[in-house]
Write a structure and sequence with these properties.
Helix content is 75%, strand content 0%. By secondary structure, the protein is an all-alpha fold. The longest helix is centred in the middle third of the chain and has 26 residues, at 59-84. This is NTP pyrophosphatase (Non-canonical NTP hydrolase).
């Protein structure tokens, strides 16, 4: 599955969520939700790495929370991109891939 396919599926779910809860899905809302989700990922990371109370969760449960929160952050990044009309595959390719080195470059 391609990132744009995933982005469209998440976008559809986000629209459903907004309809159920009466939310105005603006770019500002998406950015604020992304910030909220990043905070939740940070909290989960601190718990899973022993830098916060364990919240009565096993190590496996803590890691599962980190995984789910990372999914939330990635999903909200894609929703935000959609709100701004940014193609996430293009954004990543233009930002990251120019720095890739070929095997010949690495051998120099």
């Amino acid at each position: 599955m391609h990132l744009n396919d995933i982005a469209q599926r998440i976008e559809n779910l986000s629209v459903q969520y907004a309809q159920v809860y009466g939310i105005n899905r603006s770019a500002e809302w998406a950015l604020l939700k992304l910030t909220e989700e990043l905070g939740e990922l940070t909290q989960a990371h601190l718990t899973a790495t022993g830098q916060s109370r364990d919240r009565d969760l096993s190590a496996e449960e803590q890691q599962n929370v980190v995984t789910r929160e990372l999914g939330d952050v990635l999903g909200m990044c894609l929703v935000y991109a959609k709100q701004l009309g940014i193609d996430p595959e293009t954004a990543i390719a233009e930002k990251w891939f120019p720095y890739e080195k070929t095997r010949e470059d690495s051998a120099k």
